[in-house]
Amino acid sequence: MEYTKDIILNVQYDEVNRKSSFLKRTSLSKCIEKIAKHKIITFSLLFTFCLIIVDGMLITNFIKILGNY
User: How far apart are CA 51 and CA 45, in angstroms?
Assistant: First the structure.
């Protein structure tokens, strides 16, 4: 019964001091968990973002070349 309460309330016991402390999940740790869980989606988004940047650079260079004539 106590073990179940500890799991539900996210209580962690320190081995050295025998004190209980609550586990705190920050928004950064939640974000890292989601990235680790969905690696394919994260890779796809990063790859798409990189391609958009390269496309913007190519269009800018093309406009500069057209402006020289």
Answer: 10
